[in-house]
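Problem 12. The chain below contains 237 residues. Write out its predicted structure in token notation.
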Amino acid sequence: TEEGRAIHEASQRLLSAVDGFRLEADQLKKTFSGTLNLGLIDNTVTDTKSPLRGAIQRFLARGKDVGVHVYIGTPSELEQRVLDGRLHLAVGHFPFQVPGLAALPLYDEPHGLFCAADHAVLKADIGGVDGGMMERVRGEQVVARGYLRRRDLDLLDVNIAAFTVDNIEAQAILILSAGCIGFLPIHYAAQWVGRGELVQILPKSMVLVSRFTAIRRRLAPPPLVRSFLSDLTAGSK
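Solution.
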């Protein structure tokens, strides 16, 4: 129910406040302990360029009194949870600067345009010319991610998406099964490309780059958060 959801969210904020108090107390004692609440966008585990795995390993090696809780959400959801204190920080693609949040650039994630291997666009007689393929692509149904704010649609010169999703897995499902095209992280799509189920279209010209950043509240971070940020940036150099 709506009331139940409101109570749950209020309890989460209360727990975050208690956790914040503990972090501030640790800061006064010049030590740190507790659980880092970390937010991530979906389907980043296959990205070998991501510093996250190494950062978490280094962070947990700091001592037995620290832990990590990982929450997966959309970019806007992660931003809200960092703002209200339910998350200490989040890593993902956040296209716009949000007041009250500080952003630390980490790395870039390339996205390519993909379709199913049996898609009609691959069977068209275009004489091997990229321009002909581009014209074919503009006539196809596109699945777009809402949080990209039309970056994908503008690159394709398409006004309206046939499907709109808020996460990468949903986009992959529709590309594989609904006869549409769309942008996916190249590292994520590689599993289906390797099985011959997906094909990248116009790999030289149809590429989007998403800048990944770590976001946190602009308040001075406690030792727990500072330590993880240090571990994170050490792996992104």
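Discussion. The first helix runs from residue 2 to 29. Students who got a different answer should revisit the alignment rule from Section 12.3.
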